[in-house]
Amino acid sequence: MKYLKKFEDFLFIIPARSGSKGIKNKNIKKIKNKFLIEYTFNILKNIKSEKKYLITDSKKIKKIANKYKINSEYFRNKKLSGDKTEIMKNIIHFNKFIKKKKIDFKYFVILQPTSPLRTFLDLKKAIQKFLKENLDSLFSISKSQEHPNETIFFKNKKIQNFVKEKKKMRQFYKESYFINGAIYIFKKEILKKKKIFYGKKTGVLIMKKINSLDLDDYQDLEIVNKLI
Fold it and tell me: Is 99 strand, coil or helix?
């Protein structure tokens, strides 16, 4: 398709720090016969471009990336590798590095390794939509597994509803979606605003639930092991 000829306009980033809170050393956990991060690297094998970059503080992840011809020159320092560090801070720091390389591209694509069930078709659809609709930014979503009307939290040990005006019957609920974190695409000039979702034209790609699982804890890991 004509949109795929424009892969050279995109720079692909895989952020993968060595530590993790929910699952220890998450990005190098084995799922079947592969490390978690390899499922993301494997998708990028289908793209004929050298503009694929790893953002990590791990020497082991760098070695894995080299096997897939993912550029691992950039080093993610300790200040940017904490579990509370916003991804945008990493991208802004990385952008300073990439500017020195004088690489020609128009758009960033962020692929988080915690979405191993995301497919190349998902990525292709996202890029096609981004270009066809001339968007400033795009992110992937899927239908909520738990609707906000049925979601609760605790305040002073008392049950509270997230949605105050709760509907009694599910058929009256509005359709609900969540940002699944699998794909982010945005024009590189958006970095000046220090935001990923920015611009007059922001779009979404609706992904299947089965492709949208984001690994956060060991239960998620168990589910993915059974699905792959």
Answer: helix
Mean pLDDT of 32-37: 92
Which residues have a Cβ under 8 Å from the Cβ of 85 and sit 6 or more positions away? 79
pLDDT digits (tens, 9 = 90+) for 81-91: 555 557 788 88
Exposed / middle / buried, residue 3 (Cβ in 10 Å: 0-12, 13-18, 19+): middle
CA separation (Å) from 157 to 141, 153, 154?
32, 9, 5
pLDDT tens-place string over residues 102-140: 899 999 999 999 999 999 999 999 999 999 999 999 999
Q: Which residues have CB under 8 Å from 81's CB, separation 6+?
A: 17, 18, 19, 57
User: What is residue 1's predicted lDDT score, i.e. its pLDDT?
Assistant: 46
Distance CA 130, CA 97 (A): 25
Q: At which residue do the structure tokens 């979601």 appear?
A: 151
Which pTM was predicted?
A: 0.87
Other CB atoms within 10 Å distance of the CB of residue 200: 7
CB atoms near residue 28 (< 10 Å): 18
Whole-angstrom distance, CA of residue 126 vs CA of residue 138? 8
Burial of 168 (0-12, 13-18, 19+ CB in 10 A): exposed
Residue bearing tokens 């605790």: 154
